[in-house]
Design a protein that fits this description.
Blueprint: H1 14-21, H2 41-44, H3 52-60, H4 62-65, H5 80-90
Helix pairs in contact: 3-5
The structure holds protoporphyrin IX containing FE.
C-alpha cells in the first residue's frame, strides 16, 4: 500500500489534520471547518464531526463517500486492520 501522506492534501497542513482528528476519542471537530482552508462543497456541505467511526467510513473510500466534487483524490483503504492503524496514527497528530 502507499504510505500515509505527510499532509492531508495540497492545502491542509499536518496541524490541520491533527486538529481535524484531535482525539478520535474527544468530540472531533466538524468536517470541513479547519480555519483558512477553502474546502470544496463536498466538505462544506458535510454535516458530521470527525469520530473514529466517521473516519473509518470516510477513509475507506473518500471520493465516493463524501458529497460529490471533493478534491481529495485518494482511493482509500479497504483493509480493516490498516484503517485501524491509520486512524490510530492520526490520533497521535496534535
Ligand atoms: C491516508 C491518507 C489521507 C488521510 C488520512 C486524509 C484525511 C483527510 C480528512 C480527514 C479530510 C477532511 C478534513 C476536514 O474535514 O477538515 C481530508 C480532506 C482533504 N484531503 Fe485528504 N486524506 C488523505 C489522503 C489525501 C491525498 C492523497 C490527497 C491528495 C489528493 C488528499 C487531499 C485532500 C484534500 C484536497 C482535502 C479537502 C477536500 C475538499 O475540500 O473537497 N488527501 N483528508
Amino acid at each position: 500500500m502507499g504510505s500515509v501522506p505527510a499532509t492531508v492534501g495540497s492545502g491542509l497542513s499536518g496541524a490541520s489534520v491533527g486538529s481535524a482528528l484531535a482525539g478520535s476519542s474527544d468530540a472531533g471537530r466538524a468536517a470541513g471547518t479547519a480555519p483558512d482552508y477553502n474546502y470544496t462543497d463536498a466538505l462544506k456541505l458535510a454535516h458530521w464531526n470527525w469520530t473514529t467511526d466517521k473516519l473509518h467510513w470516510y477513509l475507506s473510500q473518500p471520493a465516493k463517500q463524501a458529497n460529490p466534487g471533493t478534491r481529495m483524490k485518494y482511493s482509500g483503504l479497504d483493509d480493516a486492520r490498516q484503517l485501524d492503524d491509520l486512524i490510530t496514527y492520526l490520533g497521535t497528530l496534535h
